[in-house]
Amino acid sequence: MTRKITINEEYFRQYRQKLGFTNQADVKNFFGAKDITPIVDLSYVKLLNRRLCEIVDKIESTVSDEIKVRNLSAFKKEHIDHPFKIIKRSGILPILNNLGRRPEQVYFSWMRGYVVSNFF
Known about the structure:
Helix content: 55-70%
Structural class: mainly alpha
Mean pLDDT: 92
């Protein structure tokens, strides 16, 4: 004779306990691997920073002389290198996200807007 199991809230609670979890959120985080923070690929970020510099170079080559940046190297240090050092040192790079995008991509999107707005 098979025992009939009623699936209800208590059943799920006991199941979570058998799995070693005390609440539903922890189970979801575990099975969805949400509790694992991906390692930021700093080599990729270095390439993205290089691209930001290339963007500045291309914009600089097309604007009129009246708005050209006087010292392009200093501009890049102040608006690309320095903010990156602050972001990296503060430890916020790994937690940048936007609808599941990788932190590197969120960083690049933000920095691109920051750099271009400071250029103009």
